[in-house]
Predict the 3D structure of the following.
Amino acid sequence: MKEKEPPVPKERAETTRQALLEALRSGRSTARALSITLGLREKDVLAHLEHVARSLAGQGSALGVSPATCLGCGYVFEDRRAFGRPSRFPRCKGERIEAPKFFVEP
């Protein structure tokens, strides 16, 4: 089976985290949407989001997260610390989960 090639990052004058921060300031986005916009793997975007959250805290701002939601029963994953989308909800066994959305809070 042929392995999928990782996306090639776009040429830019700013760093990856600066581009990520700019994308977050433009509105709410999922990690998947950010990965497409920036030309990075979703896993890499999640790692960068952790660092951006720490950087924003030092600047007096914060990384806001609209939590993931189970589309089967409506449960909201409010207490989740990980930025990634949960694979399934243990109570209803639902796997249709809306991904969390990220944004910059003032």
Remarks:
- The radius of gyration is 15 Å.
- The first strand starts at residue 29 and ends at 30.
